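User: Show me a protein chain along with its predicted structure.
Assistant: Here is one chain, sequence first, then structure tokens.
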Amino acid sequence: MVPTVKTLTKPRNARGTLFAELPVALYILIFFFTIPMLDLAAISVRSCFLYISAHMATVEAARATTFQADPVGQLSAKNLADKVAREVATGYTGVSVNSVVTSILITDTNTLNQTRSIVKLTTPADVSANTYQIEVQVSGSVQALIPFSNGPFPRMPGLNAPITLTFTDRQLCENTQGLTK
């Protein structure tokens, strides 16, 4: 008869594996889920701020007394839109305005055909046949909250480069007789 040796094995404690797996799980949770979600949220909020700058610029440009020429002591619609868009955007971190284009949108009330003009009107506005809107297009960029260095990655907007966005807003012109100036 061969003697058998009985080994005494104690069942492992489940807490020990938790301590071994916790750093890896936290690393994956933080770097692959939490930080990208924070960046996505920050980009979304900063995009709203860029839209707000476009909207505020349009509202102020629609109230201007002239479209292209600066009257004494005031700004034209073009210059006012540029100034307001840049001022509003500088109030927020991670938001910058690259360009502002202001135009007149003329809609024929009978046919609903639209024409766009980036210069002042050559003929006086005919409010009985057309509606006149001021349209402001703001192009800008928004940064992520936690930008990553390039490292092995190519340039990717939202990860290691700013995202370039363009917002357009329209408002009815409040001073149509000033569109020729």
